[in-house]
Amino acid sequence: MWTLDTDRPVPLWRPEPPDAAVILAFSTRRGGVSEPPFDTLNLGRSSLDRPERVAENRQRFLAATGLAAAPLATAGQVHGRRVSRVRTAGHHDDCDALVTTERRMVLAVSTADCMSLLYAAPGAVAAAHSGWRGTADGMPAAALEAVCEAAGVPARDVTVHLGPCIRGCCYEVGPEVAARFPAEALRAAAGRITLDLPTAARLQLLSSGVTHIHDTGACTACEPAWYFSHRRDHGSCGRHWAIAALTPGEISGRV
After folding, report:
1. Residue 49 is inside which H or E element, if any?
2. Domains along the chain?
3. Model-level pTM greater than 0.85?
């Protein structure tokens, strides 16, 4: 289960109940210092926002999760399915997912409609960015495989969390994109085809042996007060973060 903690100075999505073994969180667009159209908690350096504001926003979000002093790893995000095993902080090019067994190493991926996924297993965590291309190419399953390998556990011991993203209510696609997805992930009405990325991811994960999947249920396109949306805002918007980290304490099991 996930809950949106709206009463914090930096509102964020957090697991409920929390687990002492991991820190997982999804950001919103609130609680930062950026000006429109990046207002206010823009965490993306790829945007046209002022770098010093993005840096301040990142510091605020990490402080809200208790990870302000932790080493940070980010992904280059090229809309593929490559997963990087992270042992050191920094920017990791040419990948869309990060996995680590290092304690207090923060993994972060950014989104503004694409789906973010967080994975937690005893001894390992991962964060993945998965738009329609990555999802069609199998990113949810590829990140799962990397977590299982890193932790030395079967898929049934991994819990996967799906963050805010554009969903089937809003994500209209063409027939060439729709053809790459199972019918269960598509909706057709009034001459429109829409794609639900979380359904597509869930189908992949279930077929790979995952039994524990939790979803925030939030649609970025539906709620402009809470989320950036690349499609809704015609590309002029900020970016959210999804983060995962192992805490220094003992691994307590399933998240």
Report:
1. none
2. 2-246 (3.60.140.10)
3. yes
